[in-house]
Amino acid sequence: MRVIVQRAKNAKCFVNDAITGQIHMGYMLLIGFTHTDTLKEIKYLAKKIIGLRIFEDEEGKLNKSILDVKGSILAISQFTLYADAKKGNRPSFTEAMDYTTANQLFLQFIEELRNYNVEVATGVFGADMQIEFTNVGPTTIILDSKDLI
Fold first, then answer.
1. Which end of the chain has a smaller Cβ tally under 10 Å, C or N?
2. What's the pLDDT tens digit per position in 80-136?
């Protein structure tokens, strides 16, 4: 499982020119799944994301979590996080999990994040989405369960 965590001042997801999810301050997450991902990866990465201290404290140090700042999350499914562009110019997506299973895991991941009493907005799984957000810092963290668990 891979998650790109971006600290955001605001974030919106549009599908067919309609807003499907938006936040005012918190995280903009891009989330991808591979064939071996399970509930174990979901629980671990949800806990890791909630505990990340990448918001500034009163002294300007990255020392506060999303819970500390009462932030929210815009979570976007992103199978292209498992793109393989080693050969040729057209990426392969064979390492990305199949649509149905990935959608189920995505929904479980959203629920796991919400279990921490954080507001979570989403895009539309599998849709052509347009994302608009302001990255603060910029602060971007790449989490990959194979490197963490």
1. C
2. 999 999 999 999 999 999 999 999 999 999 999 999 999 999 999 989 999 999 999
Q: Which backbone phi and psi does 43 adopt, to 5 degrees? A: -65, -45
Q: Is the pTM of this model over 0.90?
A: yes
In a 13 Å sphere around the CA of 145, the CA atoms on its Cβ side amount to 22
Quick: pLDDT tens for 51-89.
Answer: 999 999 999 999 999 999 999 999 999 999 999 999 999
Catalytic residue among 14, 55, 79, 106: 79
Based on the residue annotation, tell me whether 79 is a catalytic residue of this protein. yes
Cα Rg of the chain, angstroms:
15
Choice among 14, 34, 55, 78 that is catalytic: 78
Q: Which CATH number applies to 2-148?
A: 3.50.80.10
Distances in Å between the Cα of 94 and the Cα atoms of 29, 33, 50 are 22, 11, 30
Q: Partners of 26 in the beta sheet?
A: 8, 72
78 is catalytic: yes
Tell me the domain boundaries of the chain.
2-148
| 6 included as an active-site residue | no
Q: What is the C-alpha separation between 94 and 43, in angstroms, rounded? A: 24
